[in-house]
Amino acid sequence: MPEAESLFFEVSKYFKPEELALLKGSYFFSQGAHSGQFRITGEPYISHPVAVAHILSELHLDVITLAAALLHDVVEDTTISKEEISERFGLSVAELVDGVSKLKKIEFQTKADAQAENFRKMLLAMAQDVRVILIKLADRLHNMRTLEVLRPDKQRRIARETLEIYAPIAHRLGLNSIYQELLELGFRYFYPNRYKVLVKATKAARGNRREIVGKILDAIKNRLKDAGIDAIVTGREKHLYSIYKKMSEKHLSFSEVLDIYGFRVLVKDIASCYLALGALHSLYKPIPGKFKDYIAIPKLNGYQSLHNTLLGPYGLPIEIQIRTYEMHRIAEMGVASHWLYKSNGAEVNELHLKTNQWLKSLLETLSDSSDSIEFLEHLKVDLFPGEVYVFTPQGKILELPRGSTAVDFAYAIHTDVGNCCVAAKINGENIPLRTELMNGDRVEIITAPYANPNPAWLSYVATARARSSIRYFLRNIQYEESVKLGERLLNQALLSFGVNPDAITDIQWERLVKDSGAKSKKALLADITLGKQLSAVIAKRLVVPGETISEVTNASNPVVILGTEGMTVQFARCCYPLPGDTIVGLIKKDQGLVIHVHDCPVVMRIQKKSENVLDVAWGKEIARTFEVGINMTAVNQRGVLARIAAEIARADSNIDDVTMESDKDYTTMQFILQARNRQHLAQIMRGLRHIDEVVKLGRAKN
């Protein structure tokens, strides 16, 4: 076919004869495997893998990658196996094909699960060999080019996936030409009406501004020539999607987006970049705050360039990019520009190291995520552009997504630093951990050896690494706590049947684990805590059949609450139980054991015989504070709240929350305080009653 002949001709310029023979062999093998198959467009199916290989040949990738591109759908869409490809074309080609192939033999509950697992597998393979994602990006690009034959709903689904996942990955790998085309095609099919309107508007604007743009281009060339700078200057129209994003984010109309044209200056070396910048500043005035030096501080994907916006004639903003020829090659081809696959290994350079670091962080996120949907969520967070550059105390530069906090910075240094951080200093000043970082901030993290991640961090961290590390730690801690509490609940149930927990043998446990289908004894105990299994049922099944069980009331063996159980034991916010209160436990599925006051309406609504209600009791020594609610009515006078707060502090308590409603004469207040037990609460309330303006006071239980 003509497309294949064109491919062979292009690669023959840099392939050895034996490499070209391997490529032709993979083409004829793929053609035979896909014989009789057609795309929805009506073309023979082989046209698709040939197009994918053609896209990759423009990046001058190696023969292994191009052969895998020609074979990338063979395992998925034909009866050919990975082993057959390995035997015929080598293990490297087979591994790449397998990494790109979808998972079609596994059943998933939802389409989202299947798609997320496909991404998970693909990115795991990519972390082993980045060529997997290069093939997948070329595959997606060709599919996007032929998307018009699909139904509108399918077009939108695929376009959204492209905008959210594939285009950002291409950007992260520095594949600018693929990135920009994926964005434009994604925009075209996800927002078809907006795309058509913008196409029409830019055509009209192009005609109106053609003369002005020509004059600016000539002026730039002449100024650089006068300064003795040898440069290639090109004008370029901004991409539609970037115009749309600017309109959307800044709430502008199209007429207000003036800088739809940009200019690129290519010079021979770095010194010439800065000389060109100075020359252009003498031509047009720079707009303050718009200068970005990506040469001194390159982007993580290796991109380097000087960016500035100048005020041109007629008040027209002009976006300027200045870079060397080598920087331009990397900007267009990214990681593919240096990923040289040879028998002696890949060339090692700074871009490789940065890419490897990102792939390594992907693997860490992958191992920390409990499921594919969660991993995909982390990936999306990590991929979207927009960054801040901050410094460590040693002067090392870290690039983080915009919106990152001191906690994100801590996890970017090392997971252990993040897990143990307790405070931070920005530019020498103590700041809260949730503070957003700004460009140029110098950040110092203060750690403590026994500190642990706080679940509240999840509400403000911005990086995938921080989010997945926090969740991984909390999930593991909660699991261990669940196992311990589950064992206590099971022991209570066994004692209520008159069975000594120590008498249960390993054989009994092995039989129960096998019969219940649980992964392990620990998993079964954790399920008891989380309400997925009932302790009484597990206790009965543990006992050897035929053994006499004497029923004993649960009340004789209550579960003792120590206050140190962690997240597996929660204290209900409807009644705020305190040590000294008579309490009961309510097992809630996926939440664990929730402690209520015995006369709480929530518990009263549940049948007394429910196996989800457990007898619990406070331990003898509990060294912690608990939340408790109090309601108060006070005379509406100046300074009353200050006196109430002072009295609460004098009683060695703390105010967690307060809400107030006032009328002309009185103020009704609801406080959430910290108290050690009922006696401590009584002491707090005695002090509050001595305030003359307090006319009504009581504990809030419901």
TrEMBL record:
InterPro entries: ACT-like_dom_sf, ACT_dom, Beta-grasp_dom_sf, HD/PDEase_dom, HD_domain, NT_sf, RelA/Spo_fam, RelA_SpoT. Pfam families: ACT_4, HD_4, RelA_SpoT, TGS. This is Guanosine-3',5'-bis(Diphosphate) 3'-pyrophosphohydrolase. Gene3D superfamilies: 3.10.20.30, 3.30.70.260, Beta Polymerase, domain 2, Hypothetical protein af1432. Belongs to the relA/spoT family. Signal peptide: none annotated. GO terms for molecular function: GTP diphosphokinase activity; guanosine-3',5'-bis(diphosphate) 3'-diphosphatase activity. The keyword Hydrolase applies. Residues 386-447 form the TGS domain. In eubacteria ppGpp (guanosine 3'-diphosphate 5'-diphosphate) is a mediator of the stringent response that coordinates a variety of cellular activities in response to changes in nutritional abundance. Residues 45-144 form the HD domain. CDD domains: ACT_RelA-SpoT (cd04876), HDc (cd00077), NT_Rel-Spo_like (cd05399), TGS_RSH (cd01668). One of its GO terms (cellular component) is plasma membrane. It comes from Nitrosomonas communis. Residues 629-702 form the ACT domain. It comes from the Bacteria. GO terms for biological process: guanosine tetraphosphate metabolic process; nucleobase-containing small molecule interconversion; response to starvation. SMART domains: HDc, RelA_SpoT.
